[in-house]
């Protein structure tokens, strides 16, 4: 049960391409921001894994973000997304 | 301070008086002129009488100069030039001038008197000339002790009248008025002529006349004064009185000569007296000097001292004082003596006196000899003092040297006698004694080295004796002390050596004994310690066998006591021998044993203790034996009961667990069974209580082990608690399972599957699984948890669900909850999405009419309102995004 912290740099070709993971939790839901599912063939495949907890999104500490805020930050991040997970 | 004015006044008055007196020469008082005329006439006649002539009228009879010249010849005894025989005026002048020239030749300056005035019969001038003559020839010769003529006459009068108390001649006028002065003069020279005692001051006329009469009658002095004139004139004429008095003087010339002779005699006598005084002084000085020399010489010849430098220094100081203060006046005295002697001899020679011969032994040569003797003594004394000083300095030096050496020596010897007499070695150990012996040997050589110094001290003392040192008594006593002490030191050194050697021998003997004692005492002491330890050993025995073994061991130990007693006596004997020898030779230092700290007292005490402990031990062992027997009974009682209760509890627990496994019958059946079991268990409580009572007895008897049963009260209590707990827990579990089954809609079979899997991995029957057990359990239930990162993540996800608090424990209820969630396929976003996908005919979006067609109205409207439009590939107008909607229902979003 590795608890290591990883920094991931995801990239995609355009805004129409989804990042390919399902986000669960948020400070408003009483759960950490967690990767709930990773879709095959997406930019996230092999990078993110189910159960990864998102610590930072871009340069922001994501501990206190609500689900919607985290969602919006990721949507606004363009074609390059930096995530710190554990 | 006197008033200057008054002083001046009186002074002036006197001065004026005198002035008046001299003025009179020019301004002649008529009364005086009368007196002078009478007196001078009488005086002239008294002389002219010798030439057979006289004068009647003084201013007339001298006018031709002839009688003047005659008068001068008479009174001077010389011959004047022949007078001019003519009667002419110029003849008269010539003759008067001849007289005047004679007077001038006699040294009298006739300033204002001219021949012509005399020739002309000038009274004043004539009287003046006569006065000049009287003064020059009758008075000038009167010279008593170099006074002026007038003063000489006055002094003569004063001297002659001195014995007469009522006469005080101060002048030649008023002093004579009462006539007593004249009478006194007469009486003084011719006491036969009048009876002075009958005269009175109150009868001046009588007195005067008496004197004048007697003078005229017996002394051939004519009446030159008139008694009445004298009395009646306020102030008699001085010149007249002087003239008359001068006649008295001349009349008494013979007496005068006698007086002169007397004076001469006086002078001679005075010389003689002076000479005698000088002689006496010489004698006195000579005696004094000789006496001093006589006194001093022995002191200078006294060459004895108190033999101290200080004494000599004191003498030297005295000598210096003598040289500085006492001798110089004597040198002066001697010089004065010699001078006086010479002066005296000269005076004697000059006054034609015989030379002075000092009395016997006081000759100048005698004094010179004595003085020479003094100086010789003095020189010898000084030399002696200096040499004595050198000698005493040398002695002092020697004495200092003696003192210094003696000090060093005494300092060295200080404490040595005590040290030598010290019995310190008696308290020594052998090695210390050997050190002391070495130390003593060192001291002996030190002592030998000091022999030289003692000899030096004795030699110095001897020299001081030879040189007669003043404090030789102290030196000798000190030297004697040092020598005596030296002898004592030698003796003491020898004694100490002998004593040390003896002590060494004894100590070596004692040392052997100590060594023997130590060799035997140590193991014996160890044995005693061991024995004492064993005898009081706090044994804890739990069985009869153990106590029996202890009793056997003790019996065996008792067998060895006889041998030990022998050893004890041998050891004590060694120690006592040491005591005896140490006491005999008075060497307490040997008593302590250097080889061991064990003392015979310790040994004896311990031995005594051992002997006391043996019977005590016997008793303790017996008591313990009895206690063990009693314990054995308690054990059996507890064990019998425990052996019944224990298995019963175990059986009951097994039954409960079996019921909990849920393998037989329905959950409700199991529940009933458990309720019955609980009833049974509650009724069994009294056995446990009884067992607790036995246990209390066991505990009070301090019994910890019971080989008659495997059960302890603790394990039984735990078992009992466990039984009760498992009944309750199992009951609760089953009740929960009934609730779960009813709410989750899982079948009894599924529940049994989960239960059997869980039980399979719950090897400890604790109703809990560790994460590893849980993982195995999941795998056995068909979860695909691979041994890679993906699998790891999946397992972590599940752990987060079943163990959100990270306790590393998974409980059956939570596990069951998880399993129903995972397997009931109802409520996850994915399940919803899949359901929508089925409704949407596999499209990634759904149309409102499809929703309205498939779902009840409420649910369809709800979905249509909430679903965002679908923007993905292949979108058609009105298409709704059921995926976002589904995830958002569960707080999820796809990105």
TrEMBL record, chain A:
Ranges of residues in domain PDZ: 7-86
Entry's transmembrane regions: none
Gene3D superfamilies: 2.30.42.10
UniProt key word Metal-binding: yes
Protein location: Cytoplasm
UniProt keyword annotations, A-Z: Cytoplasm, LIM domain, Metal-binding, Zinc
Source taxon at top rank: Eukaryota
Alphabetized Pfam families for the sequence: PDZ
Protein name: LIM domain-binding protein 3-like
Native source organism of the sequence: Limulus polyphemus
Taxonomic path: Eukaryota, Metazoa, Ecdysozoa, Arthropoda, Chelicerata
UniProtKB/TrEMBL annotation, chain B:
Descriptive protein name: Alpha-actinin-like
High-level lineage: Eukaryota, Metazoa, Ecdysozoa, Arthropoda, Chelicerata
SUPFAM superfamilies, sorted: Calponin-homology domain, CH-domain (SSF47576), EF-hand (SSF47473), Spectrin repeat (SSF46966)
Top-level taxonomic group: Eukaryota
Keywords: Actin-binding, Calcium, Coiled coil, Metal-binding, Repeat
Residue intervals of the Calponin-homology (CH) domain: 34-138, 147-253
Classification via Pfam families: CH, EFhand_Ca_insen, Spectrin
Family to which the UniProt record says this protein belongs: Belongs to the alpha-actinin family.
Protein's UniProt keywords contain Cell cycle: no
Keyword Repeat listed: yes
SMART domains named in the record: CH, EFh, efhand_Ca_insen, SPEC
Coiled-coil zones: 268-295, 667-694
PANTHER family: SPECTRIN/FILAMIN RELATED CYTOSKELETAL PROTEIN (PTHR11915)
Domain EF-hand: residue ranges: 749-784, 790-825
InterPro entries noted in UniProt: Actinin_actin-bd_CS, CH_dom, CH_dom_sf, EF-hand-dom_pair, EF-hand_Ca_insen, EF_hand_dom, Spectrin/alpha-actinin, Spectrin_repeat
